């Protein structure tokens, strides 16, 4: 495991400490979980961007055109 000196604004570290305490986990574990979560978000966005670059939007439009234009079922309205 590596270490990295991290300087955080006092307000931010206080809030993070409170969240970690409320979750009953050590501060370091909370920070690792937060960083891991953000990495997953970035990986997902990267995969979506890659998929959008190779997507066949013409075929997508053809598929959507087959969907009937009807009212939603009761309870499915927006």
TrEMBL record:
<dbReference type="GO" id="GO:0006355">
    <property type="term" value="P:regulation of DNA-templated transcription"/>
</dbReference>
<protein>
    <recommendedName>
        <fullName>CopG family transcriptional regulator</fullName>
    </recommendedName>
</protein>
<dbReference type="InterPro" id="IPR010985">
    <property type="entry name" value="Ribbon_hlx_hlx"/>
</dbReference>
């Amino acid at each position: 495991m590596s270490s990295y000196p991290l300087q955080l604004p006092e307000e931010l570290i206080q809030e993070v400490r409170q969240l970690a305490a409320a979750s009953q986990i050590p501060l370091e574990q909370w920070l690792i979980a937060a960083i891991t979560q953000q990495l997953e978000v970035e990986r997902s966005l990267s995969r979506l961007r890659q998929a959008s670059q190779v997507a066949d939007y013409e075929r997508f439009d053809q598929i959507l055109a087959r969907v009937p234009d009807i009212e939603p079922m009761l309870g499915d309205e927006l």
